[in-house]
Each structure stands twice: as C-alpha cells, then as structure tokens.
Amino acid sequence: MRPWRVCRSASSEKTRPDGIGDWRRWTSPATTRLRTVASEVLRAPLRRWFAALLQERLLLIFGLLALVLGVVDPRPWSHYRGWLDLSTLLGLVALLVSIEAIRSSGYVQQAARALTRRMHSLRELALLLVSAAALLSMLLTNDVSLFLLVPLTVALGAEAEIPVLRLVIFEALAVNAGSTLSPIGNPQNLLLWQRSGLSMVEFLAAMAPAFLVMAALLLALTWFAFPVRALRLGASDAASVPGSARDPEPTRPMLGAVAGLLLAATVVLLQEGRASLACGVVLVVFALADRNVLKRVDWLLLATFATMFLGLGHLAQWPPVQALVQALDWKQAWVMFLGGTLLSQVISNVPTAVLLSHYTTDYTALAVAVNVGGFGLGIGSLANLIALRLEGSQGALAVFHRTSVPFLLVCAPLVWLAQHALA
Q: Which of 64, 86, 284, 357 is spaced 20 to 30 A from 251 at the CA atom?
C-alpha cells in the first residue's frame, strides 16, 4: 500500500461524517445540550401557533365544516376557488394592514384622547359612535366602517372608563342597520340592486321602511343601554397633562400619512372591484417601509374568514340544503322574509342572498330579509365577526348574542309590519 493512501485513510477517519471520532463529538454532552436548545428554539414558535390556533374556535369550527363537507360531498377544485372569494379576502388584507399602520402611527390614540375631552357623558358618546357607524356604512360599506370605528373605540377605552365591548356590539348593529338603506352599503345589497334593475333612488325608497325601523329601534336601545354619567378618565389620560409623570406616546407623522393615503386608496379601489391591486400595493409599501406593521396584523382572522367562505359556500350548495330550498314556495312574501332571515342565521346573509336570488324576482324583498338576517347570531353577517375580532375580548360572541338575538326578535316583526303597511 502506498504511504499517501495510508495518510489519506487516517485523515478521512477523523473528518468524514460517519467516522467514529465525528460520532463521538456529535454525541458529546455539550453537543447534546446545543441540540436540545436548538430544538426548543424551533419548537417554541410552533407551540405558540398551536396554542393560538386552539383559541380560534370559529376557525376550527368552519375548518371542520369545510373538511367534512369536502369528504361527504366532494366537488371540483373550481367550486372551492369560487367559494373562497379571493377578492373579498384580498380586500380584507389591504384594510387590516392599513388600519394596523394607522394604529401604529399613534394618531388613533390621539384622536381618542381628544374625543374624550369633548364628550360630556357616556350616552352622548354612544349615540355619536352608533350614528357615525350607521352613516359611514351607507357610504363606505359596513366592514370598512368597522375598520375605522372599532380601533377608535378600543383606543377610547384606554383613555376613559367605558364599556368597550358593549359599544362595539352596538356599532356592529349600527352598520348592519345603516348599510340596509344603501345599494352599496354591503355586498348583498350591491348584488341584488344590480340584478333588480332599479335606479338608486328606487332602491333607497324600497329599503327605507326597513331602515327606519332598524334605526329607530337601535337609537332607542342605545338611549337606554348607556346611562347619562360623566366620562371618567382613565390613567392614560393623565399622560397627556403637561408635567405629568408619564408622557403620551409619540406619533409617527410619516407612517400616519402613508397609512391614511393607502386606506383612502384601498376604499376607492375596493369600490371599483380592484381588490388585488389594493392588496398588492399595501403589502409592497409596508414590506419596504415598516415590516413590523405586517407582523402585527391578525392573520388568523383572515384564515377564519377563508374557512368560513369555504364551509358556508359548500353548505349552501349541499344537496340537502338545496332540496329544502327548492321545496319552499318563494313567491309568497312571508316565505321569502322568514326563510331569508332564518337561512342567514345558518349560512350568513351574503351566501343566502346569492342562493335565493335564483328563486325570486322580488330582489328588494330578498334584500330586506337578508339584511334583517344580519342581526341575531354572529354568523348572520360578516360585519359582526369583524367587529368582535377587532375588539378582541374573550367570550365576546356570547355577550353579542345577548343583545343581538333579542334585537332580531323585536326588529323582524316590526320590519315586516312596516314593509307591508307601506306597500
């Protein structure tokens, strides 16, 4: 054997990965501890994500529903792409990122601080927020209105002692009521208005009785639900007083300006049906300017909506549901009103509007039914889930039902009577 071959063999025994010496170093106590630490570092984020996922009950429920229906009633992939409603999801991404950037700029808290100084009572504040939610929803759609007002309401809770969750619940009711009047106030109205062939004035006139009943009932409920008591300022408000121990959080003018412009552009693009462009621009801008904004976005909310669209979209097309719908006489006014309202409690009001639009030509009657169906259970309207998620309290859905379900039970018969009294 040549000497150089012997030397090469001896050297390779020390350096090759499967050598005995290398194996001993790999199993040494120091290396074992290092591997344990590395494993824990990698597992910690996974454990946090898994723990967060277990807290997402709606995500798990809708995901399970979509999975079960996919097994018992498999469909082509094109159906799932249609149910997923990418346009709506991309629009939600653009809105969530823009609003998170405005929050990070500090101007929401600053606006909340200024508002608390001008309001004299809790009832006055509640009436202002509820009225603003209803009016904004007529122009900017119900979900955009909530993206603007709920963060402000949460910020108000840091400035004064107010029932934040109760206010957010009433704002959710308000956007459902306000958007009922407008043909562009919510997705179901836009769809049914376009199919009806009515002018905007004619559609407004047809929806006015239902809106007036909802608005009157909501304002009366707001009046009694929020007492006339002075706003008690919280500890955070003391930070704004000169000479106090703690200074207010600084604002970031550039971030606020960019976020405000992008939010305005997003609203315009969404109304023009260009959600993908809005989403792309917003993501690129903040990926380059401030990635921390993207890290703070509630991405699990988007996952919840994605599974909701898949599960409820499939449920609406499930043969037993289709058979039930086809068995009813939708030409009868009471069947349309009651059926549209109740079905919205099961599959939400937008899928109900899409489904029942194939069984009627009275599109305004259907619009009234599905808008009433936005009250009641949280699933009745996407706006309900958005409001509660932005507020962020545990158990908020149960609290919401204690107000929204009785509201539906009172509102529905009154709307029915008003529609037929003026017909």
A: 284
Please say whether the beta carbons of 98 and 268 come within 8 A: no
Q: What are phi and psi of 233, to 5 degrees?
A: -70, 140
Enter the tokens of residue 60: 């798990």
Which of 44-58, 84-98, 238-252 reaches the highest mean pLDDT?
Answer: 84-98
Task: Name residue 160's beta-bridge partners.
Answer: 233
**Per-residue pLDDT, 54:** 60
pLDDT class of 244 with cuts at 50, 70, 90? very low
Contacts 24+ apart (CB under 8 A), 321-324: 321/347
The token duo for 168 is: 């957010």
